[in-house]
Amino acid sequence: MSVLYPLKFVPIFKQMIWGSETWGLSGVKGSESVVSNGDLRGKMISEIIREYREQLVGGKNYHRFGDEFPLLIKFIDASLDLSVQVHPNDELARMRHGKRGKSEMWYVTGARPGARLHAGFSCSLSPDEYERKVADGTIADALAEYEVGEGDVFYLPAGRVHSLGAGTSVAEIQETSDVTYRIFDFNRLGLDGKPRELHTALAKDAIDFTVLRDYRTHYQLSKNEETLLVRCPHFTTVLYDIDECVSKDISSLDSFLAVMCTEGEGTVSDSQGNRAGVRAGETVLLPACSGIVTFAPSHQMKLLASYV
Q1: Exposure of 209 in the CB half-sphere (CA atoms within 13 A)
Q2: d(Cα 288, Cα 143) in Å, to the nearest integer?
Q3: Which of 45, 93, 241, 256 could hold 101 in an S-S bridge, CB 3.0 to 4.6 Å?
Q4: Would you state the pLDDT for residue 107?
Q5: pLDDT of 194-249, one tens digit each?
Q6: CB of 260 closer than 8 Å to CB of 307
Q7: What H or E segment, with its residue span, contains residue 42?
Q8: For residue 250, how many C-alpha atoms fall within 13 Å in the half-sphere facing its CB?
């Protein structure tokens, strides 16, 4: 058995009608990530989990998720508005589709001036009012809208209606799930020249109609230290904005650490001295057995580090 080390993966590019996605780390069936470095090059993530189990993902995660990697890590570049959509929670998704639900978060990596997104309702709606607004094309008017810039964070638990706006790029961390209910698609046509399917009825039972005063996630950045962004039942994500070496002991997490580089470049290494280079747009997986991990920027580097 090979010694585990920081793992990099072949990017999975997906062209969409509204822009593109780059999946940096995926356990989604049919779109599983393949290792691109070291002795494990060419192996799928599920193969490595079967071989290394708790050494790779942690004991509690292996017991909970088996051979399926529990997070989907991606970079999204929206040239056009994404559809207004919602994701079911775990219970509803299992009942309907035999899959997990989808809670997720966005970290804005770039936005052109005036770029916006929608997250949550701005006013109270009943389920019947929701259906009427979908039917007459005004559902987006009932959503909270935010002008965004680099560094903005939005946590989107299952049930929260949302839409990413044109001119926005984000790093997305989510549960391993491909279940999406499309509510409104701005009356555009798909690649086949026909309107894309809407899931009005399915979404109705999945939506959380609660109205909040603010859907943005607020945080106080700590330079060269770990900054907590999101902690939820499905993942925890922290930010490192660094211009010097920073270390973290992950021994007590009982979890892997999935590291996305959103700016700059440098290296990530484990307690045995195994290391991998990383630059903006890349993802590195640090196994649960990595011990003390070190992030070393070439000059300046921003990293999102997630664990379960």
Answers
A1: 13
A2: 40
A3: 93
A4: 98
A5: 888 899 999 999 999 999 999 999 999 999 999 999 999 999 999 999 999 999 99
A6: no
A7: none
A8: 32
Model confidence at 3, pLDDT cuts 50, 70, 90, reads confident
Other CB atoms within 10 A of residue 42 CB: 10
Q: Residue 6 in contact with residue 286, Cβ under 8 Å?
A: yes
pTM for the model: 0.96
Average pLDDT over residues 80-85: 96
Q: How far is CA 212 from CA 120, 144, 146, 149, 160, in A?
A: 8, 9, 14, 21, 11
Q: How are beta strands 116-121 and 162-164 bridged, if at all? A: antiparallel
Within a 10 A sphere around the Cβ of 201, how many other Cβ atoms? 10
CA distance linking residue 162 with residue 4, whole number of Å: 38
Torsion region of 281: left, alpha or beta (phi above 0 gives left; psi -120 to 50 gives alpha)? left
H or E element at residue 97: helix 90-97
